[in-house]
């Protein structure tokens, strides 16, 4: 029993450098759709990530991803679109974060309580649905099955998020840096917090469909965390964050094709490697 397993793993790893097979797969429509979808997700992660880091919302992203999993599992059980269920779950988590969590400590405790309950419901829904493989895909991602419909959903979500984020960016930045002064100046701090949380929820919901609920932070958090190690300029940080997210997402997808590895594994590996390099470079530049 052990020998066949070892042989299969060796064959898969051997295909890691099979560039001809990778090129063949990249010529196929479903792979090209997956590349476009994950590139759009990387754009969202790169744009939103610096603000997420600045507002200390990393745990909120995790909560939105987990409840997106719950919503998707409920949609499977109900026989409706998984994407719709995921978006509803993520937006609900984001709304809870924005409405109930005024301070980081309070927000984290609220998200933790809601996330634990929601994750339990998700497991229940999948148990009733009866297909374990589908549940694993929601947790670890299944980018190769995005398809035309999924690509359209990601594209529409990206367009909405980018437009709304561009509108609220300046007042949101002001509210993030000094909420008291911003509120005194008439900036709707609470409303901006809720709107931004919903944008994060929408991005997280699409991330769950592509790289999974457990690993969505590799595109929404890690690239931005790496970028802030290299610069304090907000514009530079956003540009670097988008570049890092794009390299991680597209590079991870391409490298995972030939060996048939889960794309989320390669995305997180590249993203974390970039973070480590930026952390070392940042420490040396400060010394």
UniProtKB/TrEMBL annotation:
Membrane topology: Multi-pass membrane protein
Any one of the GO BP annotations: transmembrane transport
Cellular component GO terms held in the UniProt record: ATP-binding cassette (ABC) transporter complex
Compartmental location: Cell membrane; Membrane
Major subcellular site: membrane
InterPro entries in the cross-refs: ABC_BtuC-like (IPR037294), ABC_TroCD (IPR001626)
Ranges annotated as spanning the membrane: 35-53, 73-98, 110-130, 150-169, 181-204, 210-228, 235-255, 261-282
Highest taxon, organism lineage: Bacteria
Keywords carried by this UniProt record: Membrane, Transmembrane, Transmembrane helix, Transport
Keyword Lipid biosynthesis in annotation: no
PANTHER family per the UniProt record, alphabetical: ABC-TRANSPORTER METAL-BINDING PROTEIN, METAL TRANSPORT SYSTEM MEMBRANE PROTEIN TM_0125-RELATED
Family membership noted in the UniProt record: Belongs to the ABC-3 integral membrane protein family.
Protein name: Putative ABC transporter permease protein
């Amino acid at each position: 029993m052990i020998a066949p397993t070892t042989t299969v793993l060796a064959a898969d790893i051997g295909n890691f450098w099979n560039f001809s097979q990778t090129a063949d797969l990249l010529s196929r429509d479903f792979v090209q759709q997956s590349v476009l979808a994950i590139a759009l997700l990387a754009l969202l992660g790169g744009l939103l990530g610096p603000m997420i880091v600045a507002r200390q919302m990393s745990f909120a992203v995790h909560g939105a991803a987990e409840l997106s999993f719950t919503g998707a599992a409920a949609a499977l059980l109900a026989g409706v679109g998984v994407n719709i269920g995921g978006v509803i779950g993520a937006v609900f988590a984001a709304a809870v974060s924005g409405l109930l969590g005024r301070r980081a400590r309070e927000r984290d405790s609220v998200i933790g309580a809601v996330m634990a309950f929601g994750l339990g419901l998700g497991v229940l829904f999948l148990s009733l649905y009866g297909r374990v493989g589908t549940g694993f895909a929601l947790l670890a991602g299944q980018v190769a099955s995005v398809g035309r419909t999924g690509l359209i959903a990601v594209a529409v979500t990206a367009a909405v998020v980018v437009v709304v984020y561009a509108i609220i960016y300046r007042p949101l930045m002001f509210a993030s840096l000094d909420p008291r002064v911003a509120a005194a100046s008439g900036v709707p701090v609470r409303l901006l917090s809720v709107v931004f949380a919903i944008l994060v929820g929408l991005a997280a919901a699409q991330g769950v469909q592509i790289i999974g609920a457990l690993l969505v932070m590799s595109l929404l958090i890690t690239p931005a965390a790496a970028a802030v190690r290299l610069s304090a300029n907000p514009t530079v940080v956003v540009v670097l964050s988008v570049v890092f997210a794009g390299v991680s997402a597209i590079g991870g997808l391409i490298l995972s094709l030939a060996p048939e590895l889960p794309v989320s594994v390669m995305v997180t590996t590249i993203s974390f490697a970039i973070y480590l390099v930026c952390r070392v470079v940042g420490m040396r530049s400060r010394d």
